[in-house]
Design brief:
Blueprint (H helix, E strand, L loop, with lengths): L1 H20 L26 H8 L8 H13 L1 H22 L5 E13 L2 E15 L5 H67 L5 H35 L4 H4 L14 H10 L4 H5 L16 H4 L3 H21 L5 E15 L10 E10 L7 H67 L5 H35 L15 H10 L8 H4 L7
Antiparallel strand pairs: 1-2, 2-3, 3-4
Amino acid sequence: MREGIALNRRGITLVLVLLLTGCTTVGPDFQSPATPQLPAQWSRQEVAQHTREIGAWWDLFNDPVLSQLIVRGAQQNLAIAAAGLRIVQARAALGISDALLFPQQQQVDGNFSGLYRNEDWFKSAGASLDVGWEMDIWGKYARGIESSEASFYASIASYHDVLVSISAEIARNYINYRTAQERMYLSRQNIAIQQRVVEMTQVQFDAGNVSELDVQQAKAQLYGTQSALPALNLARLQALNAIAVLLGAIPEEIAPMLLPDRDRKIPDLEKRIGETNRHGTTVTDYGKYSVIPHAPVPRHPVDAQVVMRRPDLRVAELQARAQSARIGLAEADLYPQFFLLGSFGVSQTVRSSNSFDLSDSVTATIGPGLSWNIFDYDRTRNRVRIEDALFQESLTNYNQSVLDAVREVTDALEGYYNNVEKSKFDFGAVEASIRAFNISFNQYNNGLVSYQRLLSTVETMTLREDAYAQTRGNIANQVVGLYKALGGGWEPFRTQPVVNTETVEQMESRTDWGDYLKPRALRGEDRNE
């Protein structure tokens, strides 16, 4: 009897050794996509310095309010918080895949019942422990872990990508707010000028020097300029509301942060005319009064390696890696699955007046098992084909993402340089229009030019100053767009907890999360130990 038991043990051990030594991993091993072709003018140089520049690119604007808004947005934005919670979900899914390497079935059963038979009562009781382990001969569960791990790191990269987008959106709306604010300053000053023209024309009309037509034309121009103020104010308020949403706050809480610096308020027309008369206004002179953030000059040519570090490209590559592993996961079902099954239990039925003694009711079994779907009418093979096609689609999506990145960077660079070129002409027009108004105003007072000539210079000056303010806002927005296209804006927050303390406390009060909500676990650092 003992020899038979020993023989069975040796047989089981031999089967396990043969199975385990024959383990393999089916399906393709993932290879990173080949480096795509990038524009010829893009450089391939050392990226360390450029990476530091684009990491916290908003500091290059030298605007403390902008920097404060972006830092606060990274901490409070709800889209960023939601992306952090998707990391938590992916981490838990990875934990499920990890656990499948261990016995998949670990089940305890128990029962107790009463039985009436032949005018007598019996009682029955039993308990059992069943364990089943599907051995990973074909790497099915290893591929599952590979896929889940890639999806987990993709969720982290996606979180970084959301940081990039939110930082850029905060900056864009802040620039739009300041641009609308400056246009309102200019509009109010020009309204004051036009009111003076109306008053002057009224005096001339009362003296019989001009007709009523001149008075009505002056009023029409004044009312037209005044009518633009509500639209500008609406644009300002819409930008404020957008900033508030991006910061997870209400507008009333954000508005005090955006109060203009008195030292940077645009001077009145007399001062600007005086500067023009003395030495001619310069871009630097004019810009020092502006509330629109001054845009830093972007580096050119672009470092190609920096572009390839964009979080969204990392997401696309990791999603392809996850899908590649699913091919092997499906392919493993083409082969037999081997199990090691074990059971230990007790079961006994006695008369109701007797006690359970369990003397001869213990049972135990252990042994290998096999399962193989050999007549599935090619369903498994077609599942493999589907996964392979999905993998090829993910590679195509990656290449599309690279092309989109190239387009975004190129558009931003071209937009910047063309708007800079436009701003030179816009400023020349501003300078000339201010000078022209000054000359026509003096000549009109001396009766040397017609009223229509004066009115035309007032209108031109108003339009030119407004156009120049819009161009400077566009330049700043193009710089923001460039740094967003380069994937900048997430590095300064890489050590920031992806789930804030308050949310962690709420979740842990409901569920046992173990170490999953620890910052190191959600950054994937525990996977590298």
